[in-house]
Amino acid sequence: MNTGIVTTLFALGLFAGSALAGHTPEEHAAHMAAMAADPHAAHQGHSAAQPGAQVAFADVPLLDQDGRELRLADDLVGERIVVIGFVYTSCTTVCPVISAIMQKVQRQLGERAGREVQLISLSIDPQRDTPERLHEYAGRFGAGEGWRWLTGSQEAVDDTLKGLGTWTADYQQHPPLIMVGDGRSGQWTRFYGFTDPAVLLARVDELAAAREQHGHDHNALAQETHP
């Protein structure tokens, strides 16, 4: 196991035990090459944030880990605040860390997960990641109802990734990436690297606070207009 990965897991409090199997030098090299946008992101939980990300939701059918057909925009995002991770189950380097980060976000959210905040892990290897395989993988990370794992046809997943601005020609060279956004306001941020869960949760809380402030401003304006 690569010592940098282990260091990151311990730094984030995310050591996932058996979820991290051994990996080949080729797999490690491919993942590390994909981190050109932030070459130091794999250490000490550092990440690079890209706010103001442009997002479009492809109107295509996807399948969750229970085999249910879903539309990303209508059935999962809606007007929720959303955290999306990008993984594939045969990955043994970056992806288990991303999933462990998501696991800690789920734990910290508590009852807010699935009610106020939707967690999503989208497979970037749909040819191999069947719903059954995702179901087994999700169980390793204690995924609850508020954390959906998605796959689908290659075309549907590619269209979804392109709309989110996260598609890569070679899925094995995808960058470590988690997105946080608000389906209501359309504000999205991409976090590249191994982002500290506290940073992701802070962004979730910022979006929630912005909603609350918008509601207060709207009510105040209504009272001024109709005294």
Automatic annotation (TrEMBL):
Residue positions binding Cu cation: 91, 95
Disulfide-bonded cysteines: 91-95
Residues of the Thioredoxin domain: 49-209
InterPro entries: SCO1/SenC (IPR003782), Thioredoxin-like_sf (IPR036249), Thioredoxin_domain (IPR013766)
Gene3D superfamilies in UniProt: Glutaredoxin
PROSITE patterns associated with the record: THIOREDOXIN_2
Domain of life per record: Bacteria
Entry keyword set: Copper, Disulfide bond, Metal-binding, Signal
Pfam families named in the record: SCO1-SenC
GO molecular function, one term: metal ion binding
N-terminal signal peptide: 1-21
Family: Belongs to the SCO1/2 family.
PANTHER family recorded: ELECTRON TRANSPORT PROTIN SCO1/SENC FAMILY MEMBER (PTHR12151), LINALOOL DEHYDRATASE_ISOMERASE DOMAIN-CONTAINING PROTEIN (PTHR12151:SF25)
Protein's name according to its UniProt entry: Thioredoxin domain-containing protein
Source organism per UniProt: Metapseudomonas resinovorans NBRC 106553
